């Protein structure tokens, strides 16, 4: 039997170009998204918490 080749889907080839972004701007955007996620998932009481 011949070995089957694993084909990589086109979605896996996502790194086609490099985009220069300042570290400061990337940290601002990433931290904002992270902090909003934490606030909505942890800080705001949920009915499932039994409060």
Structural key phrases:
single chain, 51 residues, mainly alpha, 1 helix, 0% strand, flat
Note down, in words, how this protein is organized.
The mean pLDDT is 79. The N and C termini lie far apart (62 Å). The protein is built from 1 helix and no strands. The chain is mainly α. It has one helix spanning 23-43.
What's the gist of this structure?
The protein has 51 residues and is mainly alpha-helical. Helices cover 41% and strands 0% of the residues.
Chain-wise SSE layout:
Elements: H1 23-43
Tally of helical segments: 1
Helical content band: 40-55%
Order of helices and strands: H
Using the CA coordinates, give the radius of gyration: 21 Å
Largest sheet: none
Structural class: mainly alpha
By DSSP, the count of extended strands is 0
The rounded distance between the terminal residues' Cα atoms is 62 Å
- Strand portion: under 5%
Look at the structure and give the mean pLDDT. 79
Poorly predicted ranges: none
What coarse outline follows from CA principal-axis ratios?
Answer: flat
GO molecular function: ATP binding; DNA binding; DNA topoisomerase type II (double strand cut, ATP-hydrolyzing) activity
InterPro entries: Topo_IIA-like_dom_sf, Topo_IIA_A/C_ab
Protein name: DNA topoisomerase type IIA domain-containing protein
GO biological process, one term: DNA topological change
């Amino acid at each position: 039997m011949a070995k089957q080749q694993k084909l990589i889907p086109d979605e896996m080839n996502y790194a086609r170009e490099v985009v220069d972004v300042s570290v400061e701007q990337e940290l601002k955007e990433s931290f904002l998204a992270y902090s909003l996620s934490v606030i909505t998932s942890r800080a705001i009481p949920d009915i499932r918490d039994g409060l």
